Amino acid sequence: MLQKIFSFILLILVASSSSGQYKEKMLVMQSPGFGQYWLKIIPIGYDSTVSDSNIINCIDTLPSYLFGVRTYNLMFADDSNKLAIMANEHGLLRKKFYITEYWKNGNRKRETVYKRHSHHFSCSNFYSNEILASRGNYRNKKKTGRWVYFNTNKKKIRVEFYANDGTLKKARNFKPPRTSLRTMFEVEKPEGQPYMIR
Question: Residue 73: inside a domain, yes or no?
């Protein structure tokens, strides 16, 4: 009898923790990728009006897991079969959010790492063929420190240095552009990552 009561209480807790705040869909990778993955979809359609802070606040209201690790996804508002955002949360005490935005062809568009309760974050932007376009840091929504820019041939074309208040201190252009070690070994993905969401 006690075992039945315990299993009933456990069933109620599991049902209440997943109370329709997100839905699940299956992502099926097509050749050359492989595998099937369950996606937890946040009920927000992604467009230009949705900010990363809106996504992080929405994730904070959803149920937590062991060691604070959570992964949620958003679809494009105009196409619910295309993955727009993948948001990962890591850490118990020092939380970090990893926001990955995708082009509609399936390649990465932007990767941003947020520290919890902080306006400091790092950002990497990519071209539609997933070649690195720029990378750097923000402080209070302004560029800070060293920013590096690349062209579509993986060559470094410009380096900028910003003060903490967001003002440009100095910049340097590269003519002819130089090859960077970071981009030298990047694989170009012109056709995107083929996948289906069911």
Answer: yes
